[in-house]
Every structure is written in C-alpha cells, then in structure tokens.
Amino acid sequence: MLINQEDYGKVDLVLKTNMDDKFQVRINKEKCLGCGTCAALMPEAFEMDSEGKSTVKPNQKSSDEMLMVAKSCPTGAIEIYDEADKKVWPE
Ligand code: SF4
User: Fold this and answer.
1) What average pLDDT does the segment 70-78 reach?
2) In the chain, what are the domains?
3) Of 25, 26, 32, best ligand 1 pocket probe by most atoms within 8 Å of the beta carbon
4) pTM for the structure as a whole
5) How far does the centroid of ligand 1 lie from the alpha carbon of residue 10, in Å?
C-alpha cells in the first residue's frame, strides 16, 4: 500500500520494502540530519537525496533489518508504520 503523501504533510517518503507488505518505512525529512548513517549501514535500502536527506529505496529487507537501521538513526527520522498505519517506531 502506498502512502498518500498529502496525508502526511512534511513527512516525506514512501517506501516499500518486502516487510510482509504490512509495514511501511517513511523518512521524516524534517528530522533527518543527513548524517548518512542509514545509507552507510544499509545502502540497499537507504540513499541520500539531492538535498542531503535520506530516502528509502525499494528493497527486500525484512522488518527486523529495517528496524535495526531505524534504531540507529540519531533523531528517529526513520519511522515504521504497521498495516493499520500506526507508528510502531519510534515508540
Ligand atoms: S540515520 Fe537518520 S538522520 Fe541520519 S541520514 Fe539516516 S534518516 Fe537522516
């Protein structure tokens, strides 16, 4: 399921991972410092955009792997939502 970005204002991103097609990962661009940690840890799933902010790439990572990287973000900018669109990380 793709996210209607209009519903999320400044929360950019849309993602798509295999994550059982239940979970979604979004980058909160306002919180992203552009440190590059996520892209360094998992270049298959994260990359930096032209403005120096992280974006999520289509990938086949598991929800556990994505959560591991999300937890490494110093600002909690990597947000994970369940299929009910409830934010499960950061808690
Ligand atoms: S780890 Fe967090 S703050 Fe750093 S680039 Fe990734 S999303 Fe942005």
Assistant:
1) 96
2) 5-89 (3.30.70.20)
3) 32
4) 0.80
5) 16
